[in-house]
Please model this.
Amino acid sequence: RSIGSAIRYRHRHGHTMVRAPIPPPNMTVHSLHIFDRKGKTLFSKTYSQPAAMGQQQLRQTSQGPADEDPVDEQRKLVFGMLFSLRELVGSL
Model:
């Protein structure tokens, strides 16, 4: 099977059938975070408009202390999840 092209196959009664093309998968990169081993953010970029609007809304509705950035907190949570996932895969 090929993605994006029509599939032809012969039915058991001798008829040629054409199946609609298989659409390519939709994948969107919303944001990219690169961390060092200690959890420090080396690079962070938001690519999609909905993700950028979500970060802006998160900053506006923050209930925490004024010196704490909620987006920085989100980065820490992403790093923690990736670290835990790496440890889990390493133990398997």
Observations:
- The chain has a mean pLDDT of 75.
- The beta strands are 7-10, 16-19, 31-35, 41-46.
